[in-house]
Predict the 3D structure of the following.
Amino acid sequence: MHYLLILLLVSLAVSALGWVYFIYFFSLGYGFGVSALAIAIAIIFHNVLTIPTALLCVVMFIFGMRLGLYLATREKRSAEYKKILYGPDAAKKKPLFVVITVWIFCALLYVGQVSPVAFYLANAANDVAVNEVWAWIGAALMAIGVLLESVSDAQKKAAKKKNPKRYVDTGLYRIVRCPNYLGELVIWTGSFVVCIGASCSAWQWIVAAIGYIGIVYVMFSGARRLEIRQAVTYGNDPEFQKYIKKTPILLPLVPIYSLAKHAWLTFKGIDN
């Protein structure tokens, strides 16, 4: 159990970036936090690392660093993001209780997301039988998710550079409207399935499930926020209306074209 405390302290330390700007709890603190947790897991369990579990740590590290650096770069170049970060709404001081609550929530969530890998290695270190096949499957899914997210971000950047005022409907955006969030869902599904081969106890399954369900809600809530913003910006465009009526918002082949009628998939208050 001590390893979970160490991971929580690492997560709290990196997530503390949110004390600089509140949004950093969810952006830089998230990306760099996952990278730091991957390093911590590899160090704590270095004696029982195998090729697939090492790959899991490497892929988590790459995901976190890529996301953190991408968001940091976006902050430098995007006027819209600067408005979110430095605008009048962002400048309002949050109540101390809210800041502390969000800080702890984010730190716990990030630990929950990576916990299946930690549980697998912890159980292996305690001579509990583990199935390495699921570690390979998890590593493969996570790598596919990172690739999806990276490609979708690159495609969006290229499309916006060509036509900044148009919505993106090319490349992976022909399949779903939020392929970057889809990629992240695949990443954390890869982490979660590692539990299957980890011979997890009941409490370990609960922790892992809370982390997985939490990030699923975050991704669907992010998709809903994007849906609302795009409705304001492109809502009067007939071509955009055709696009959103034929392209699922997040999951390929799943006919959910709007999350307005699926509020149970998002955090309360998103539409307000």
